[in-house]
Amino acid sequence: MSLRTRPWRLAVAGCGAAAFGLHLPVLTSSPDFDVTALADRDTARARAAAARFAVPRVAGKIEDLVDGVDMLVVLTGVHQDLIEAALDAQLHVFTEKPVGLDVTETRKLADRAQGAGLLLEVGAMRAHDPALHAALAAVPEPTGGWLIKADGFDEAARRRLLPPGFSPYTFVDDPPQTIPRQLADAHQVTALKILLWQGYHLLTALTLAVPGVTPAACTLDADGQSLHALLFGPAGQPFTLVISATAPGRFLEQIHFGGASDTATVDFARPYEPSTATRVTTATGEQSDFPDPFAAMWQAVSDRLAGQYPADLPTSTALAVRVEDLALGLAGLCRPGPHLRKD
């Protein structure tokens, strides 16, 4: 813990599965943090979270939520209004990824926070993942590779984390988000949502592994469910990105990087399951039992609040802008795939 007379006081907006299964278990067990208030659009859900994690207060209004805290933790589906309210109150902010669908707005929020001397932290958990960094240590300069995600497991996993009677949130009931003006076609907007909602961790890994990677091609299937993309590194290194629909209960999230003298393949644990199940395979063998990347992420947040910045990582907002820029570039190139005949 940093040299302080008290922990960092946090208020949490949003009590969905990510709060129950990921953030609140870490935050309420850490000596660095004191979660003092919760809020959710479903007050009963917020009360259930407060009871489970011994949080003393449930707030009904944003003014009450942010009263007397150091940082607002935004775990809702749409983030911008809450981020702005926190900055209005001169508070630091942690927000789940992505900041939004429009990177122009993300840049404005980042500039506003920096100008006010406040932190805007973005939950790019993969940037702190020991398994990914083990792979990057084995292949520090990838000459190519692939990144794949096929997730039919997430909804069922989120449902199991919630108290009885509560269902996982979807984006359907969220207020609309600002869409980048340069995306003229509906399939491009769909592609952007897939990239930022389902592929964010893959894009994070790629931007960390290959600074300067650029989009080359992107195709969305006719059903608007699966996306295939090609990207190139600065020296023309090819990388394939696949985000695919799959049957319920099936899951694959894999990253493979090849280099001049070694390769590394990361098979990530399923959502909300222990990171010890993640495997890294290189020419020298297989590693597993990696520490929790969420705990590492929140330790980095605590360090940054205390003015200590990890030298080997970009700030989380700088990384978020790079990821959102990359997603926008891919979405802008995206073309719809053919309708396949079924006869």
Automatic annotation (TrEMBL):
Record family assignment: Belongs to the Gfo/Idh/MocA family.
Name of the protein: Predicted dehydrogenase
MF GO annotations: nucleotide binding; oxidoreductase activity
Stretches assigned to the Gfo/Idh/MocA-like oxidoreductase N-terminal domain: 9-123
Record keywords: Oxidoreductase
Organism: Frankia canadensis
Highest taxon, organism lineage: Bacteria
